[in-house]
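Recap from last week: sequence in, structure out.
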Amino acid sequence: MALQSALLDGLTGQRLFQPKTQIKSSIFKMAEVSKNSVSQTLITENEHGQRLDNLLLKKCKGVPKSHVYSIVRSGQVRVNGRRAEVSYRLQSGDVLRIPPLRIASIEQEVVAGAEFKVHLPIVFEDEGLLVVDKPAGIAVHGGSGESFGVIEALRRQRPQARFLELAHRLDRETSGILLLGKKRSVLLALHQMFRSGGLGGGGQGADKRYLVLVCGRWMDPLRNVRLPLLKYLQASGERRVRVSEEGKTAHTLFRLVARWERFSLLEAELKTGRTHQIRVHLAHLGFPIAGDEKYGDFALNKALSREGLKRMFLHAWRMRLPHPLEERELVVEAALPAALKSFVHSISAKEKQDYGEKV
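Predicted structure tokens:
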């Protein structure tokens, strides 16, 4: 699928995320401590490469997800005697310290309707790899205020699956290509590809492309943006990212696709994979993403909502990578969702387009 096809084709039958039921949180009666002492766990080869939060959620059955994330972020969980981020990839031989835990006995689970159902279009699947087209508005996993996510939905829909893990993340508000490993060997291979960055560096990485609509007139047909990014906590406890010399290296390549009087449509190619990388790079340059409620132009977002844009305009449309199990290249693509395509058409109907093919 060419870039223009991603904008124009294959959209009629695609459904947006619409839960068939409204989700409410489970009601838990907390038994304060079931384990009265600290436990020490040695990470095995089979557990090598797993995220800390994913392993804890598996090991701590009956413990609310919010509590699992809380004990990690407060430093009660230790890896080799040190604090660790929830995203830390465990290594075989690591010693994991788990504090006494509150075990939740479910007194009542309130869910309107029989089951939480998510429509997740399958883009590609084989014995080791699953690729879905994630809708906007759903997190990739539960926790941190989210009761349910893509991985939980897929595990519920596939109870026979022996192994199913996220290979990477997309923001809740971002739609598009999401990879999952169905074998541990595939998952580890995918992690290595993502750490290797773009395919330009030796051909062993993954080439990730996004479509993004920004507020403003972007003038450069091609622009490399190298700005280091630093994670930080606001006084409210909200996690955010900003450009800082103290941050980690971050590199995004932007290509201009189309430009109107008020907006520009870009293709963003990730050379590194930092949290909120595209969003922060663009906001820092003065081109906030349309509909971005965290880093965007809040007054403009309200106006855009009235014009029909109800979400952030950021879509992971294409990924190219070496197949983890076969000696061939794999290319997976997801067309621009109908709601975003419709908004682009509404812009074209009202504003003069002075760059790119007619959208």
